[in-house]
Amino acid sequence: MIRWRPVPLRLILVVRTIVNHSTPVVSDPIQPTTSKRRDFRNFIQSVQYALEGFWAAVCHEPSFREDLIFVVILTPFAIVLPVNAVSTAVMMASLFLIVIAELLNSAIEWTIDDISLEKRLFAKRAKDMGSAAVFMAYINCVVVWGIILFSNWERIARLQFLRWPPPFLP
Known about the structure:
Blueprint lengths: L8 H14 L17 H21 L1 H19 L4 H31 L5 H31 L1 H5 L13
């Protein structure tokens, strides 16, 4: 009969350290900067980084491109529909929330893939949670649009927004 003894925690930490240091590095680390400027040039550089990130998502993420097409198609409807300005703003915010969630999901996925390409449970959970955030943003969009369209249906059904000239012109 073999008696199992608990493994000392110190041995587990040593083994984890050895294993972690033997995994290949996917990308080279970037040296941290000494100090960060706090002026207008820093703002311009931050905008450039944001645009680079947006363009990287457009170029390398098919799901982000699909979400952008979804937003580009529905934004004119949010503007043209006969609802008040707050409803239009809420409808557009629900659309942009999808894009924001997809950007964050893509950032999580790329970061996890950069750390290690091997399949790990926590990496899978993090990626699944990012996908769940995008899914919840879509559900939020459907609910927001559904409530606003339902509450304004009598004006939408009469095609009031297609009449010319519009009522605000003399």
